[in-house]
Amino acid sequence: MLLRELAALFLRRNALLLENVEKAIGAKDAVALHDAAHAYKGAVNHFSATKLSESAFALEQKGGAGDFFGTESLLAALRNGASSLEEELREYTRSSGN
Predict the structure, then answer these.
(1) Through-space distance between the first and last CA atoms of the chain, rounded to whole angstroms
(2) What are phi and psi of 66, to 5 degrees?
(3) Per-residue pLDDT, 97
(4) What average pLDDT does the segment 63-71 reach?
(5) Does residue 98 carry a pLDDT above 70?
(6) How much of the chain is helix, strand and coil, in % rounded to 5?
(7) Mean pLDDT, the chain, whole residue set
């Protein structure tokens, strides 16, 4: 039941969490990127989404260093991983009765 609740929470917040990362990159706001990527990493760590977590961590480090080189490709990896996780969690919540 807890996993289903975490999945539902992630599904509700995923778009906003991604948007925060995207906006920080677009604005070249290093602090916002660090914070948004850290929040995203925390949200996906519950699901053992290793590659997705690694992408978020790399963006978090980029924000911490004020380095925006390569952030667009990391963002693309984050979006792709997020899409896959979202699909899996939607299936899980449907099949588990939510």
Answers:
(1) 10
(2) 70, 30
(3) 67
(4) 98
(5) no
(6) 85, 0, 15
(7) 95
Give the tokens for residue 67.
């380095």
In terms of Cβ atoms closer than 10 Å to its own Cβ (0-12, 13-18, 19+), residue 40 is buried
The number of residues in the chain equals 98
- Are the beta carbons of 21 and 33 closer than 8 angstroms? yes
Q: How far apart are CA 77 and CA 82, in angstroms?
A: 8
pTM exceeds 0.85: yes
List b or e across 68-90, with b for residues whose CB sees 16 or more CB atoms inside 10 angstroms: beebeebbebbeebbeebbeebe
Res 96: pLDDT:
78
